[in-house]
Amino acid sequence: MRDRRPHAVAWWIWAGLMAATAIKVTNPVVLVCLGAVVVSVGVLRHATASRGASLRIFVTLGLVIVAVRVAFQIVFGQRIPGHVLFTLPSVPLPSWAEGVSIGGPVTAEALITAGIAGARLGLIVLCFGVANVVANPRDVLRALPGVFNEVAVAITVALCFVPELAHGIRRVRTARKLRGRPATGIAGMRGLAVPVLEDALERSMDLAASMGARGFGRVRIVPSSRRSVLCGILAAGGILSLVVGIYGVLSQASPIHVGPELVLVGALLVTIGILGSGRRSSRTHYRPAPFGWRSLICASSGAAVLVGISILGALEPTATSYSPYPLSWPLVSPWAVALVAVGLVPLLVSPRVDVAVASSMQRPQVRAEVRA
Amino acid sequence: MIRFASTSFRYGINQPWVLRDVDLEIQEGELVVVVGPTGVGKSTLLKCINGLVPHMSGGEFSGDVVVDGRSIENHRPVDMADLVGYVGQNPSASFVTDRVEDEIAYAMENLGIDPVTMRRRVEDALDVMSLPELRDRSLGELSGGQRQRVAIAAVLAAAPKILVLDEPTSALDPGSAEEVLSALTRLVHDVGLTVVVAEHRLERVLPFADKVIVIGLHGEVHIAKPEEAMERSPIAPPLVELGRLLKLDPFPMSVRDARRAVVDLSAKLGSTPIPPERPVGAESVIDVRGLDVAYGSLRALDDITATFASASITAVLGRNGSGKSTLLNAIAGLVEPTKGSISIRGHVPFSLGAKERNGLVGLVPQEPGDLLYAQRVDEECTTADHEHQLEPGTTKRAVTNLVGELDEARHPRDLSEGQRLALAIGVVTACAPQVLLLDEPTRGLDYCAKRSLVDQLHGLRDDGVCVLVATHDVEFVALCADQAIVLAQGELIASGPARDVVCHTPVFAPQVAKVLAPMRWLTVDEVEEALWHS
């Protein structure tokens, strides 16, 4: 099972590239197809049952984003001329508040534009939600090269800390309820915050002690050499080139025309820099998940969607972009739909979720009792 | 293996000494138990072994501790990581990763052990602590006992020569505790591991000990064979007290030794009737009928029907995760029953307002400190009076009745475990509830504090209060409970007088009952009284 699933990093790359595709697209048909693809992958290939259950939250979140965006457009949005659907009572605003309005005529064009913008944003959130459903983000952190170990541990600890904190708050609230004291108001917040923070502080001391006692930070000391300085410069330059390149690729109105080239060069430089400095750490990795051909296919399917849609957009703009002026049905391009469907390829290279495993995961406590 | 050379330590210049001129030596391959009243510095002594004290704690340190040739003066805990494995009091606070397998591998990854060896050692550690089927589970889903075993496996895998454990069984039910301890003994015997363990429940660890370190109230420290140490230790399990009472020789360290030594006593006691069952109050206070509580798909309580009488103490027994806390929470009105009903004197606790509920039922949670939030003891008492609209001074009186005068200017967090628990009980009982619920109250209490708690509860019972105590501590049950119920997987599997219930199975039987079985004596006091009469 462990080896037959694509690597967590591959899943996250796939999801990231699907999100990047969503940014490039304004055609609602293509957006809906993208959404359908990522959700079906999430449903069919979730990592564990509890992760699968969280998919619903991300779908809801995506829809809420669309709804909020549209609602804002109706109430506060810029008045776009066009076919008026209905008119809200408007509040006149002084001239310096240009661009913002409250109420007024609401046009179909404005609603469509807002809906598409909201859908793109919601889709990006959904893509990362699905990534979270199909692969544990901690597995991604585990796969980071040695130099990132400290950062990865800090993030992991923080991720564990949030549920612990929530647990602490629940416990203290229960105790306050027992004493019949409301947990509201400033006095209530103080009564809640003091024990929870004391608890958190104590826990972090315990954790620091445990990490120290278990050899955290025991690295081979290598004096700063010319090589490590070079690696640092390479990595920094690479990151800069990556950032500028990604901006060039994703922004429609950017003056940078060598985006893809910059991304490639940047990625190369960063890889060399990281691998070079990674040699300094004496840490070893326990059972690193292999990044095999399945992972490669999974990640490249995302890249294929992004590249394909970009090329299609350049050849036939209406296939991927849509403007409500004049008001018309969006073009349904079979090419675009087929390209987006390439995003389903990970389904072919990952095994079906084992139903028996999934159902037993739902009742961990009961199993725990039998064992204990 | 471990040598303390005139080691002294205190947390600050103006603080009292925690350890003073400690000189002792622990040999390789020994299992050593550290014994002492609460708050005398057992944890501090343990932390010296891998340098957490003084490197992490700060404070004033003099003398030296040398472990396998490494002095802690110039070795930080990190430098000791391959030599000493340390498991603190709260294992879940020590977890760095989120999966069982990764957690076990974590120390080895830091030590740079090669992947092949690492893989084998993880498998071994999983086997030794009987965890193989939990390897892929998330740490958050585990029960207390499982977490404890994972924490031990996580340090074992790094193959240290010394294992240091601070209260490894305090959160565990008797069955899980035995499992952990027998795994440790196996390691001592098979691998020659040196184990140093601090524990309040001596009855659990003493049979396995090679040496005992006794820490006195003023930081004086002795190391001796268990028999010698126990003859004069201020802290002693019931078995040792029985040995002292009967002047047994050789001094028994295990139930088996004691059984052989008391053959003639059995004949003498056989003719004496066991104390009669204490009559409980006539009226039933709590009436639970067909109670189900479910959290999502998990059924925490399954069709519980029981009544609890006034002026009685009922022990709620069962392993970790069997639904004990849920039952108490449901009676306290914190959890809504999914099905069935709970009534306390005709009231439904869940639907009551805070004020009426507090006058009816009080719950002291597992962490009694959660109930306290003032900065000083006296402030805590006046706040409680104010909140419950009681006459000023009521809470203070309740607390004083329980434990005598507490230092009013102290912060509740600075009180000893026993005093803090008493303060919490005082705050809850100030409203004179008819029902008092205690969840796992004996955690971290030494025998004296436990005895004081028993007296407090007996006092409340004599005032007519119906007391329910969820606990793993069978010795405590033997001392204080009249009735007992046993839960398993959310179902009620046994109920009745405490003597019948605990003597029924060896898992729950207290030491005296095990020694004198099939006679059903529970405590040393009972035996003493019977001998006095006969």
How is this structure best described in words?
The complex is a heterodimer of chains A (372) and B (534). Chain A is mainly alpha-helical and 372 residues long. Chain A folds into three domains: 221 residues, no CATH class; 68 residues; 59 residues. A two-stranded antiparallel ribbon of chain A has the order 1-2. In chain A, helix 1 runs antiparallel to helix 5 and helix 7 packs across helix 8. The longest helix of chain A has 30 residues. Chain A is globular, with a radius of gyration of 25 Å. The two termini of chain A are 27 Å apart. The C terminus of chain A is likely disordered. Chain B is of the alpha/beta class and 534 residues long. Chain B folds into two domains: 233 residues, Rossmann fold (3-Layer(aba) Sandwich), CATH 3.40.50.300; 239 residues, 3-Layer(aba) Sandwich (Rossmann fold), CATH 3.40.50.300. Chain B is built from 22 helices and 19 strands. In chain B, strand 9 and strand 10 form a beta hairpin. The mean pLDDT of chain B is 88. At the A-B interface, helix 7, helix 8 and helix 16 of A face helix 3, strand 6, helix 4, helix 5 and helix 6 of B.
Compact overview of the structure:
The complex is a heterodimer of chains A (372) and B (534). Chain A is mainly alpha-helical and 372 residues long.
Write the layout of secondary structure elements.
The complex is a heterodimer of chains A (372) and B (534).
Chain A: H1 8-24, H2 28-44, H3 49-53, H4 55-76, E1 84-91, E2 102-107, H5 108-134, H6 137-142, H7 149-178, H8 185-213, H9 226-250, H10 259-278, H11 293-315, H12 317-320, H13 334-341, H14 346-349, H15 355-361, H16 364-371
Antiparallel strand pairs in A: 1-2
Helix pairs in contact in A: 1-5, 1-11, 2-5, 2-13, 4-5, 7-8, 9-10, 11-13
Chain B: E1 2-10, E2 19-26, E3 31-35, H1 42-49, H2 52-55, E4 60-67, E5 70-71, H3 77-80, E6 84-87, H4 100-111, H5 115-128, H6 144-156, E7 162-166, H7 174-191, E8 194-198, H8 202-205, E9 211-215, E10 221-224, H9 226-232, H10 238-246, H11 255-261, H12 263-270, E11 284-295, E12 298-309, E13 312-317, H13 324-331, E14 339-344, H14 354-360, E15 361-364, H15 377-387, H16 394-403, H17 417-429, E16 435-439, H18 447-462, E17 466-470, H19 474-480, E18 483-488, E19 491-497, H20 498-504, H21 511-516, H22 524-533
Parallel strand pairs in B: 3-8, 3-9, 6-7, 7-8, 13-17, 13-18, 15-16, 16-17
Antiparallel strand pairs in B: 1-2, 1-4, 4-5, 9-10, 11-12, 11-14, 18-19
Helix pairs in contact in B: 4-5, 4-6, 5-6, 16-17, 17-18
